[in-house]
């Protein structure tokens, strides 16, 4: 199993606009990928309520690395990713495999 964790920072203008509605929309859109993207086993998205450098985070689990690679180019994922990229200015990512 492969785990994929991504964290982003909001752009200043998004943070000032109180992005709660955007978070709710992204949660729904990411959850909708389950059952649509082959090999995607779990997906969670949420806002960081605990302070720190990053504002939002995504967690995904895939059956294989190949499934994760396919997710990265899947049109349904790319549509959600476009919204995230337009709203954020910093990103950190960790991918790891569990035997």
TrEMBL record:
Chain coiled-coil ranges: none
Domain (Stress-response A/B barrel): residue spans on this chain: 2-96
Name of this chain's protein: Dabb family protein
